[in-house]
TrEMBL record:
Keyword Signal among record annotations: yes
Assigned protein family: Belongs to the cyclophilin-type PPIase family.
Protein name per the record: Peptidyl-prolyl cis-trans isomerase
E.C. numbers: 5.2.1.8
Single GO MF annotation: peptidyl-prolyl cis-trans isomerase activity
Keyword Signal applies: yes
InterPro entries found in the cross-reference section: Cyclophilin-like_dom_sf (IPR029000), Cyclophilin-type_PPIase_CS (IPR020892), Cyclophilin-type_PPIase_dom (IPR002130), Cyclophilin_A-like (IPR044666)
UniProt function note: PPIases accelerate the folding of proteins. It catalyzes the cis-trans isomerization of proline imidic peptide bonds in oligopeptides.
Annotated source species: Devosia subaequoris
Length: 194
């Protein structure tokens, strides 16, 4: 008997999603709706300036990959980071919670799509390693002016409602670079076209 883990099931779902239809088969602008424990956050995605990043987020969202994933790094007055679909599920064991922020999806990394959009409050950017072409699944929402990131990280969305829920997320201490010991999570994530 074969036992399917959540990760195996997610990989199958991603494969089916990729084969089924292109991410932008819908008309209108895609909006990422994050239902958090403290309320809903609506993010207008920006395929006109970062189509590959938006396509990845749409694909992962439609496969249910962001459901239950924690905000593992939240720095007061700067940003809140989430999206580690490999290690950031709060229902996984403590090892996975300790590793949150180090993983991505089973899909290949996405090349940078730098643009002229500035990192102001409510901007959504692609998290990455030192390699600018290493975005996979993680992203962050800025909670204040972070224009020092302009041209170094890809902007692919902006919050249109619900910043109060982002502001209310559990913060991590500065001495731990914002790593959150008891993180809030994304209850569910969906895509709507408007």
């Amino acid at each position: 008997m074969i036992k399917l883990t959540r990760r195996h099931f997610a990989a199958l779902a991603l494969s089916a999603t990729l084969v089924a239809a292109p991410a932008f088969a819908q008309s209108g602008t895609p909006h990422l709706i994050l239902t958090l424990e403290g309320g809903a956050v609506e993010i207008e995605l920006l395929p006109e300036i970062a189509p590959k990043h938006v396509e990845r987020v749409v694909t992962l969202t439609q496969a249910g990959e962001y459901d239950g994933v924690v905000f593992h790094r939240v720095i007061d007055g700067f940003m809140a980071q989430t999206g580690d679909v490999a290690n950031g599920d709060s229902t996984d064991d403590s090892y996975n919670l300790a590793m949150a922020g180090t993983g991505g999806s089973d899909l290949p990394d996405v090349e940078a799509e730098f643009n002229s959009e500035s990192f102001q409050r409510g901007i959504v950017g692609a998290a990455r390693s030192q390699d600018p072409n290493s975005f996979n699944s993680q992203f962050f929402i800025t909670t204040a002016d972070a224009s020092f990131l302009d041209g170094q990280y890809t902007v692919f969305g902006k919050v249109v409602s619900g910043m109060e829920a982002v502001d209310a997320l559990e913060k991590g201490p500065q001495e731990k670079n914002g790593a959150v010991a008891n993180p809030d999570k994304i209850v569910s994530a969906t895509i709507e076209y408007r």
